User: Fold this.
Amino acid sequence: MHLTFSKQIAALILCFSAAFSVFAEPVLSDFDIKMMDDISEFRLSLGRSSTCAEAVAKIDEYQAAVNGENVSSRLSDEILLSVNNILVWEKYNYLYEENISHPDLEPLIKSQYEKVKLFFKEHKKEKHSKWLYTTSGDILSCCMQFLPLTTAMHEGLTIKKYYDDGLEQDPDFVFCLINIA
Assistant:
């Protein structure tokens, strides 16, 4: 079968378009973008808490609102996981600051680690947002101390890959640059 020149060009454009869509950064909805702005503002507001316990209570309240039907149903699965990653490691950091041996640290971070691992297993062929890569790297990083040595060594490489993938999408992504340092 012989294709005319115009059909060859059309086929070539179609192939490039398909390839670009596979490797392009995922497009976030306006609500997803607003949520990421809101979570950044919320994180800053936590600094005004008078105690770690007060900050943890605010995080729990915010997390309940985010995971409620009214908000979670409007977010992409990636951004919902990203927001929960942020809230979990913020809570982890406040609990750690309060008591380095806090009994809730390991179950809190390992539970989120399992959610991250499951999400990436179920969506392994997909390109993800810079937010998901970066926040997932942060969760894996916090979890390292609770993992067996060989798993921790493997996850160290995964963390680097996640940060690199986030920076590949946006080399000036401050959120990632701060965390990778």
Q: What stands out?
A: The first helix runs from residue 5 to 23. The chain is about 75% helix and 0% strand.
